[in-house]
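Dear colleagues,

I hope this message finds you well. In preparation for our joint manuscript, I am sending the DUF8097 domain-containing protein (Halogeometricum luteum) sequence together with its predicted structure, so that both groups work from identical material. I would be grateful if you could confirm receipt.
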Amino acid sequence: MKRRTTARLELLVGLATLGYAVWLRRFLRRHGEDVEPLSPFAFVAGAVTAAAHRNLYDRDVGRIRTSRRRGLLFGLCNVGWQRLLRRRSADPDAFRHGYGLGRGVGTVLYRTWFGLLRDLPGDDE
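The corresponding structure tokens are as follows:
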């Protein structure tokens, strides 16, 4: 599958996931359930992390796209980064929800810009 097609598919999945997350939060609120508040810091951190991850992946920095082992290690580093930020936050649950939603927004924005509106950065291999 071509990289641009994969990027567009990633955009569609991101949009569907964000739509579901927003719908679920509204549904739970309407039915009287407690919904975790979102941390603005976590939301921004998630969006920036997702955009940076996609950019590094597209440019194949450190061969993270072309080497499965390096890609796996990079993914594990991302998990560690999230855990580190979560531990440092005042409310870990609010951070988790905000970070996840922010990652979705960051992915959608990045893939809209690179993949839909413009060519992907990096070499096509």
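For the figure legend, we might mention the following. The chain is about 75% helix and 0% strand. Helices lie at 3-30, 40-59, 68-88, 92-113.

With kind regards,
E.M.
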